[in-house]
Protein 1
Amino acid sequence: MRLLECTPGGEIRLTDDLLDKDIPQYAILSHTWGDEEVTFKDLTEGTGKNKLGYSKIQFCKKQALIDGFQYFWVDTCCIDKPNYTELQEAIASMFRWYQNAEICYVYLADVSTSCSDTEDEHSLLHWKPTFRKSRWFTRGWTLQELIAPLSVKFFSKEGMQLGTKKSLEQSIHEITGIQLPALQNCPLSDFSISQRMAWLERRDTTKKEDKAYSLLGIFDVYIPIIYGEGEEYAFSRLLKEIRNASESEQTYHNMSQLLKCYTPSHESHKNENPQPFPGTCKWLIGRHEYQSLIQERNSMALWISGNAGCGKSVLARFIVEQLKPNRDGRSRTVLFYFFKQGNKEQSNTTVALRSLPCQLLTQTTELWSHAEPSFGVSAEEAYGSYDALYSALQSALKDRRCGDVFCVIDGIDQIYPTEKDIMFDLAKLCVDPGQSGPALSNNTFKLIFTVRPTREVREAMSKVSDNGQITFRWLKGEDQPVTDMIKHDLELYVRDKVPGLSAKFSVEKETLLIRQLVERADTNFLWVCLVLAKMRESPSLVGPALEQIINDSPLQMDGLYNSLLRSADISEKGRTILHMIVGSATPMTLSELRTAFTIATNRDNKYITGIEEEPDIERAVQILCRPLVKVVDERVYLVHWTAKQCLLSVGLVDSQNPPWRPLNIHDCNEELAFSCIRYLAYHVPSGKSLSSPSTLPKFPLLNHASRYWPLYVRRLPKSQQKEFITDARSLLDLKCERSNNWFSHYWQAMRPWQPRPRTWTILMMASFLGLEAVVDDLLEGILQRQSEIQSERQGRDGRTAIDLAAESGHVRVLSSLLRSRIFDLDFSGNFGHTALHDAAAHGHTEVVKTLSEARADVHAKTTHGETALHLAAHYGHTSTVESLLTVPSSGSTLGESHGPGWTAVHSAADAGDIDTLVILMKKMVPSSEVVNRVNDDGYTALHLAAHGRLEPKRAPSRPDISIPLKNVLFTEALSLPAHPLELNTTLRPRKAEAKMPRYRDVISMLVNHGADVNAKTPDGWTPLHFAVKYGGEDLVDRLLMEGADWRMMTTSGLSAYDYANLRGCTAITERLQNEANNI
């Protein structure tokens, strides 16, 4: 971009062509062209000052200097138009140049103020009629010059200011038809394509093609400039690009919305942990292990291990907040996830793998292209698939636009034992992926784990160290040098807190208490915090009494909790608060807790006036529940996850000293269920929508109660569920507006990809939500009345109570429905799905067993030809597959294909699911015919396994499950047209979570059972060809070991070696060359 510079001598000169980073602040001119405009050539040759257009340049110079700008831009002379490349770039950049200008001066050559003696803007009424008729409002290019700049001033031909875009916005709106928000610099994406197109209707351009080109910035798209192509063709290309961009933007929006709906709040999980105490954690910055991680220009992993309670999570938060400010000028993204034992959401690897790519991909829309291959095929399936999420993360990290990525993972030792592989999988991302795809260029991936040094962690680390390609460091917090630093931090904390215990302490006494606390705590910050809280509660704050508390406090955390509970005087109200904190499905906000607590402590009053006006709940929590509860960012938490174990443990309480009664988990759920149901039934108004942002704050418990009340009821024994039957039935009646209010919030939170059901019966609702006592009560009434039986048997919208219970996994509810004998066990609803199909697809093994024992038809097929076995295998539910195969004659479905010719073996091989494949192979004798069967694409199971995990393959045709993401309807959140198939309200199944693909083992098993290792597709591709293209060196090596012939040719004459050589896969080419040399 060239600018005009006002020199100290009053001259005007052109700058060099400036890079974006070198462009100073500038003003910009908007005008209509006349016959004598000053050109780029005029300025470079020192001519043009006698042209009429030079007066506009002088005007712009004068006004820029008045407003304090040394530089300005005028389109007639700052672009070398005969240079076609420069002209292309200028047209593509024009909107951005106007948008980045500090101010835009609109010079209206046909609007005059010469007949007025005053310069008062409001007195110049005579210019307004000519202003409205100005030619400037009819030109195509001036549209973006009006819309793009933040600040616009309008001037008459005499240089008199007429007003600003803000002061004249109503007149401009009336003249142009442009909506006021657009004139107020609202995002242009807020306006539809047709709205933006309409802005150009009354405008024209000298060159017809420019009418299309002038809209490039308005729609944020780019097309090459081709003068001579004509207006029609230019618009055709423009509209095609707008559609592509719109689809991409909508796809990005949909994917991000879907991922966010099922991504826990990583920020709030981080913030559950306190900020580091001032001066602590800084020792890490100087450690060489950490410095090498920050400074070295290669990817690597760092383990920071330490014993329980030493502050690893606080250190992890410190690291995240240290890394976020980018001090070295390089592009950097910081990802993080905090695992937590005892919280189902925070101890699940698939949930974590939803969070990490969501954090990364939302940095820029361009990176979403890496999620589209998986999410575009089946959004709902992808969000629940560890494999798809990992692949999206892996692919995005290779993108040159990604920049450096730091990933902090806290507490990975706390996740379920079956999911330990995530540590190794994340560590593998630190390997330069040049062998298996495009290199990271200058990007790096730095991984930081904070862990306890458990046996499982050490085994996982050994697995990483055995992989010579992964650079890793281990900072051992249990070793003496680091232990000393942690103790130093602990001492800083204690030195600050001990003086606050008593103002009467002498220096010697303070020093003694500090030393005793630090020595006894070793490195356990949690122990110190709890003991200090116990000391504050001591009736005697004299030295000996406090020393006694320190010495008597057990070093083991369960013993310390027991000691605290025995000495605490927790009232019944305090127990109520603890019930809610311990039982809550997610940490409650103070306002949620206040409302729920008020209802729970006023059980005799259905309607409580001033329910939102309870006194300070935070103070009540601190008084009634200390020291076991903390408040962070308006949310209430237990002080540590181990506290929940203690509060619920009968074994920890001293039977000889029983002032503390352990909490009962059923009481926790009963308190929460009561408060939520009572709130929805009596405190949420009916007859109006409660979804607007202005309304929601008035009902603080609405979202929590709507989302979780069925869960709290479900957790209760059936005998306790009965107390909620009456109110629950009223909440389940969708004919009532009150029911629709809470259910819309539930559906938005739990099933946002589908239209909300509006016609389900009360029995269908209760079955779907798993409310056993309500279902039994309803069935009793239906059987007595008889008149409703046929209606329930037919169901609504292709669904019945029995398949809703089956797909949701509510086995006790299903048993009640089966005992009623009301329902046809094999009723086929939408797309031919029976209850058994739905249960198998969702992996509900116990439900499958119950249905099988009731003689459900295991041979029944959907409209796409799928049996229950096909669905269970496709979604990776190994135990469900095994259960189905125990049903007599079920083995005969093994060789059956469906849809695009897939068998259950195809599905297991495609997913790299060795566990399911083992089960299938046990039933297949002889099995070579099924193993070598081809699908409609001509692929055998071995072809699919050879793809590996790097490229999604075409999955079985599942229109009710695999709906393209861009058509997903997010009800009441997104306004996309519904895909026709979305009229089905089947809840889409998910892949089995956290099942790691093992394609090497699958390949060997298939070959051992007769798979043809050199089988060809119709195009002549062998499994080895696919492994070269998609699967990587590891799978190439395994296929060669199993006898694959690298010389086999495709129909186009390419061997696997040729293909590897063409793709530049050096390592694979060398491996195949070695194979050739050994012949």
Note: The chain has six domains: 4-186, 262-478, 483-553, 556-727, 820-1012, 1019-1077.
Protein 2
Amino acid sequence: MDDYWTSDEEYSDKELPLPTEILKKVGNSDKVDQLLQLYGKIPVPGSIPIANLDNSPQIHRPNIDSRTTAEVQSFDFDEFDTNVYTYDNGAPELYNFGGQTYISDGLRFKSITDNKHDYPKCPDEYIKQPKDTKSRLIRLNWAVKDDGPVVEIPDNELLIEYPFKLDDFQKKAIYHVSRGKHVFVAAHTSAGKTIVAEYAIAMALSKGRKAVYTSPIKALSNQKYREFKNIFDSVGIITGDICCNPAASCLVMTTEVLRNLLYRGDSLIGELDVVIFDEVHYISDLSRGVVWEEVIIMLPKVLRLLMLSATVPNYMEFSDWIGRTMQREVVAIVTKKRPTPLVHYLHIHSKNFLLFNSDGFNQNAYHQMYNFAKTLKNKTKGKVQRPKAITPEGEIQKLQALIKSLEQNDKLPVILFSFSRAKCETYAKCMPKLDLSKTQSERSKIHLFIKESLETLSDTDRNIPQLKFIISLLERGVGVHHSGLLPIIKEIVEILFSRGLVKVLFATETFAMGVNMPARSVVFTSIRKHDGLKNRILTSSEYTQMAGRAGRRGLDSVGNVFIFCVDSPPDLQDLTMMLIEKSTPLKSRFRITYSMLLQVMSRNHMSIEELMSKSFLERNRARNMPVYKRDMFRRKRELESIGEIICPFGAPTIEQYMDLQLKFREMLVPITKLLWNPKFNIITPGRLLRLHSIAYVSSYCTGVVVTTNGDSLTCLITLPSEYKIKDGGDGVDIVYSASLIDQSISYYLIRGIEAKYISGILDSFLADGALNDTIQSFKLDGFNTDILELVALSLVSCEVSDDLVVLPKELKNVPLDTYERFITLREINRKLTGNQCHKCSMREEHFEMSLNRGNCLKEIEEISSCIKEESLEAYPEMMARVNVLKQMGFLDSENVPTIKGRVATYITTTDEITLTQVLFQNILKELDPPECAAILSAFISTDRCNDEAPIPTLKLQNARDNIFEIHRKIYILQNSLGIHTPIEDFDLLCNFSLLFICYQWACGSPFPEIMEMTTLQEGNIVRAIIRLEELCKKVEHVAILMQDGELADKMQKTSDAIRRDIVFATSLYLK
């Protein structure tokens, strides 16, 4: 129980007004207004009468595991509120689902023995809705891990018939999907997560609803579209440049497309039943991860979510965030089992060493390998060193020998991962004798497929050097795959590989992202990569993602992974970290963008503060928010219960007195520690002290030192006998207590008094010298109670001076500020002892009331600082960006988007602020379509490129200079308002490196000629031109909204001019 709920029994709808004078103590008038609003009536969610709501949202009760269920048999419910929550007003944050862990008759949890499915973690039935309750629970955790037995769905109830046996994790996920729950599935690469996605789609279609499958990359979307087309009748796809059958019941799209649909309130959202997020670990991506958070936050709460991820360590934390955001429980299903187990080898000098398998890391094998490599190295001492460059005699020769070995041992096909596009091509190019298409049948299939794939291309495009090079490799059963290839080439390679016609594939790590194309073996040509900042060892997640491509389900008994070493082995520590260390946890990449601000402020979905507060970045704050509200209520109620202090002197002197006391205590601590030194002979037995916050005293009492023990004292104090017992304080023990003869005064022997409990070292000793001598010899072990009574009587009868002790002469060399502090203390002491409250009989009562009130106000302010929007981590950046938008005329004084701001919301793929300024300054007016393409290319390329190309026309030169000036002014404004972006990163947002290439392409130059003008690879150019065409369409739409028919017509012509030839060849997955 305690893992999922915490008590909210003291939270009610009763309004507790705060006295104005209390509010004024907290801060200025603005703060008073904020607190009045905050401390006003806090609405408390009431019960949700399910019987009266046919379409009510899923109500989530406590989920009790077997251990708790055995201990808890029922709940005692009191009274419920009558508030009704529907989908329109959202689910409440605070739930009235129960009280404490005790039970009323007639209400039971299903225990393990009660449950016919024997399912402890997620029982078939939740708690029935109670009719009467006052006690409440706040839900702390919204994620439940299903690690219990499998619950089988009867075959006649399955929506999809499977010709093979499902794995346990698939059965569990399908079971929960069938029950309409949010499900998070984490499993290794190629484990079969797509099976669950297919079932979720089938569930939606069976209800007459729609399903959306989202992926992080367009290539994966294309592949999934083709897969789903073979299963379901009505499938469509929407990506940046493709829109095929958008009215279909199953839609495949990129996450950015779904975000845009949500922002504009597309009617499609209302037709959905489930949204599937594949590769959800992509939320950690630095540049695009924020999109996942936006989508999840904005999705309607009625939808079901299915999240598919690689294995991550913080899956419960992420699932909890999803559940809290959607206000519904999330079932997390995690499996570390691979359908095909992996065996990891370290390959060096033509020999394989078994490094890691199901038995764990083989350290002995590593040491054998190390000694083997060292022996070979010693044998070659004195010989001419081999060249380090890639040559047939060096690295490539050894790599080719490994491939031949794999072929001979029936371990093909193989994927060889490299972290350089150039190396992938070099490896393939330098192995001309590597021919793995052994039969005429295989060669014919390859030739025929390539011919069919290229039939729509022109002769010019078919003669592109990159295409001819890759085809020459494919004819030998060898492939290359990296992001610099033309899209059609990558698809040809992927499909031939999936058909088993490519036996050796040289690929970068992008091939491991999402695409389900396993091999029998995987080879790492290196385990080091450059991540843009430094050259480093692969992380465990990166290695696992790529290594997971080894082993084909149903075909291979094991998957073989080889770490290829040229000469020297990798470091043992690096290897163990990479192989054994936990995978990288999911991290929030939430950040505030101009586009996000304008999109949210243009619509009534939610406020930007609400979007921020629901982000994964703010998950801990959101988790604690109901508790903050409960604690705020408790502090308010405590304030009310303190009541008003009625001073007999007719003035609020106790507040002044308390402030002086607290200041005095704080300043005295370092002086006390200084005087504690035995050489000064000040804090010794017999010395009188003022003590506070011990035993029964909040303000102060007088005590006498009985013994000293290092940094603590044992003191005797006397108090009126009617004082009520309270805690002694941290580390303070009451050793002995008794009453004096007349029973009106009690005395206490207290041990463990430290410097922090002393509020005055008085210039007094007990008057009786003989008694002082007795105290000097007092021992705690076996002490005489008669002596204690004499000390108590003496303390009651003696006159106690209010003056502080005089500093000893030995302190003449202390720093000046210490003397100044002591002088200040004397002045405060004078004011304290002169205050009317100092000797008042009601001092203690009023002091405690004032102290409690001050503590309550302090806690209220602290809680308020956690609740208010300013506590959001991204709040300062949000305010800075809002100010930029205001000053540039994108927002009015009420933070409502202006016409300029609304125009910017339609430009979602680029630097919308600079481009909107360009449009409103009419810079494109004098340009023709090719020149428009050249100018707009500045907003689609974020690659660093050192190409120096001429500016084709004077109009282009002038337009470019004007845009540079606009962009520079925005940078200066941002910096002045606190948004500090490195100038090199900001310049990439407006980057004219592709200006000449895009101009030539829009003028009709063929693609081979374009490639002769740049050092960029073909794939980069194609992606840039496709994004340029998307941007032209957006600008055309904006021009129509601005009623600029001339610009709209020009953008249409620009789009037509660049949408041609191999750049826009139809994806093979869509044919």
Note: The radius of gyration is 38 Å.
Protein 3
Amino acid sequence: TAICNPPCQQGGKCVSPNVCECPVEAQGNACQQMLSLEAPDMSTFTTALYNIRRDDDKELYKYSTDAFEQNGTFFGEVWSKEKDYNYFNIELEGLFGEPQVEDFPSYVGNFSFGVVSATVNLLLTKTPRQDGDPTVTALDESYNCSNKDYSSTAVSINYPVTGVLKCSITNPEFSTLINHGDNFTVTATLKSGGFRDLINRNDDSYHSRQYYEGLTTSKTLLFQFDFRKPYHCKQNGTCADLPLEIANDVTKGMLQFRWSGWKDDLSYVYRYTWEVHKLEPDRTSDQNLVEPEPMRPINHTEILAEYYADGSFISYTPPEPGVYSLILEVADKANNSVFARQIFIFDPESNVSINVDTKMVISSANPRTDYLWQNNIQKENSTGAPVVVTWKNHFENRMHKENKFLNKVNTYPQAVLETGYSSRPTRVVKSVAQEFDDKNSLRTIDKVQNNNGIVQFNVAFKIDNEGGISIQIPPDDNEFLEITDPLLDHHSIIATRKDGDTMHIWVKARDIMGNENMDDMILHFDSSPPTVNNVTLDRNQKNGTFPFSSRINVDAFDEHSGIHKVAWRVIASNDSILHTGETLILEEKNCTNSSVMDCSCTPMGMCYKRNNSFQFNNCFLAIDKTNISNEHLVLELDVYNRAMLFDTFEQQNFNVFSDTGVTNIQIVARTSTTIGLTWDIEPSCYMYEVTGMTLVYRSSNGQSKSVTIPLEFDSYTIHGLESGSNYTIEIFSLYDSGRSERYVISAKTETDDGAIPIALVAGASGSAMVVLVVILVVVIILMRTGRMNEAKQKAKKRLTQYIVRPITTYNMRFNRRTGVYSGSLDDDIYALGNIILENDETYLVSFDDVALQEKIKIGHFADIYTAKFENKTVVAKLLKSGYSEQDSVVMRAKINFFAQEQLEHENVLAFLGAVLNHPQFGAYLLLEYCEEGSLLRWLKKHRGKVNEDLIEKMCNMCFGIAKGMAYLESEDVVHKRLGARNIFLMSDLEPKVAGFGPTPQLQENEDPNSTGKERIPVKWTAIECLVDPENATSASDVWSFGILIWEMFSIGDEPYPGIRNKQVVSKVKGGYRMKRPEYCPES
């Protein structure tokens, strides 16, 4: 038997010399130590570090951690980027269950088991200053829960705690310097144990106390401090990766972006967060783009670093077109963050448009040619002025322009957090460093140089000597020259050219999205004036255009550009300009170089007559009656080619006027005592000054008498003359300031040979009585019907009907008033088919009172010009060049219609007057000028810009149109052609109904280009009117009004989309109706 010395205790067994085999509840060489069979449970162990302001106990920030898993995550380690702490709290909770103790030997008296020790150790270690040095311990403190400050339950080996032990350790004066890389370790240890008291079995007295050596439970919490942000490998030159890269930062489709190369040496990169902001112009005058709400992105996505492979692309599609910023946040475990930003444009909708309100022009060309001709050439040595093409405000990307897509992007607005420290009240928590902002992509933070949203212009040109016929196809892309500065809105072209050449110029505009649009212009060259061979003057032509006409004959030609017009000035002796005028020389379509000698053609293929004549109204030159004998006029005549170069001709002694009022005096009857005279009253340039006529007859013996004759008389019988005597008879007109030239005639009375037979006297008396009775009856009828004065007025009107208003001369050295005739004497009325046009002076206008300005529209029947009349802008509707007699009839019918109807309403286009007898244009209308043009044009201009305000404006327009149409109905006027094309808008968008009045309908076999007729607007016309236009009533106008409303709220779309005109009738009769337009209100 083995012997152990000392002997084995606690029931141990000596298994070999001095070796005891101890039971599970004992340990030691001789099993002298009693063991607790269970370790205590640690149910709670948390530590929190605080920064609490001392003056008001406000918690500024807190970092805490727990030794136990929560939702599967272990929080025993925590990283912090804060270094200032002045308070900590540790919560510890242990549990030791009631021990399951078997029966003790009889020598064991009292016993107890539980937690006998609870301690917390704080250890702060610092990274050595140099590599290789040992770790520095800056703090090593232990806290014992037996301290009553930490636990209300006393705990010791003699007082084991069974059940729950709670310990709360707080230090409100914690003050320890924390540095980057420090580790703050908190370790909690619970130890179990107990004791048993031994008794003397002999007398049951206390013998001794034996202690159980318990088991321990320990957990550790670790605070690690990282005060440095992640960095990118590019910063230290170790890589070429990009911090944030957008593969397509200007895109019409899905965005593709990625990042790589981010590092953090201590706590490592933990997560990535990318977010998207839509940029908006700020409210400053610069209107730079900004993130309006930096902390509220439209998209926010977080990715843990362990789940992102560096350089892998991520896709994203924004919700609408715009300029956006993509922000990437790179954060380590301590939540140190660094941000990178990229700017991108998403725009699948916009395009490059051409602004119809501004023109692309050749600014080096002559503006008087509407910039179609340039008056200089360039030789092969590049001497001569360049061709300068200008496109200011002509191209635009309206979306980019109005929404400032290409403006500068401001620095990302820093997001700050209040720290609570007076010395450092705020701290930046979100900002983009300059090195990580977008500076190298297509759309960077810098302003993109642009011109109305256009970033690039390209120019190309071709030249020929065939009027541009051979250079109509645009060049290839590689033939275009790029304009390097997009802010330039012009370009100078250096190219060899000669007179008669034509240059075709193309300008291409491109936006940042790659959208393109192109416009082109034709330019012709002529640097030489026309050749004027001869100018002749035929004075005082009979049966001319005017009562007093002269004809100017011009023989001129221009081989490069053709003859455009002849302009003249008549200059008085005092160098004042009496009158100016001009005549356009029209192209002769049946004229070729080989057909007749009187023909000259240009390289453009346009031919003109060399010999042209025009009538001149002598009365334009009327001067004061008293100065006629001393006045010497000079005619200066300028012959212009189409390049507006001219040669001047001068005609001296241009005295062509006349003041004769009475002509063609004839003797129609003579007796022994009477002489009967008749005469013609010729219109006179001075007729408005005539106060009467005087007849003077003088006998051969010198006796004379004078008679005053009323203006309306064209015959007179002189009575009381001597038989067989010679008389000299003078007739002249009386003026306020004198009299006209005398018209003199000689006559002799019959010789009285004896008495007249009674029968002859009776017969003559009887005939005279019959005549007197007839005259008396006519006079009585006229007097009783009140037409005597009317007959007298009409007789006077024949003499005065062509006297027009005083002429307002334009571009003269002075203005003067003179009465003239402006047309040939004709009947009181004009027959226009079945329409009678009356001479009503309330609307007649002299063409000299109207100054035509700019042609604004070209039509099949007429051209529309702006004009000046009575110092305001009006519209003149002129028949096209080469108009037919039928066109003239239609125009006069329109004039008669407006003159008779006298329509006046705020929503009906106003008729202002008419010119009846322009020598070149014939009759034409003067109408109210609407600044915004047609409603159809306005609708198409506002496509893509529909909002509530625009819809409200259109509703107001509908109301105005309805009022105008209601007025036409009240005047028994049926429109027949109501549509957006025939509604015109004032500057305040007040609508004016137009396009009604007499217009013949175009037949199927007629050419609209050669007639003054119009096609029936099928898609706007009621069905019954398509069958027979005579069925048109105000009810059919209501149908057209409904179509017009559809046209408006579809923003200018054509009605019945996808349906041809020929299909409309069958479709509608079959029940087809168009859907309510997208923007039409439901009520």
Note: The chain has nine helices and 66 strands.
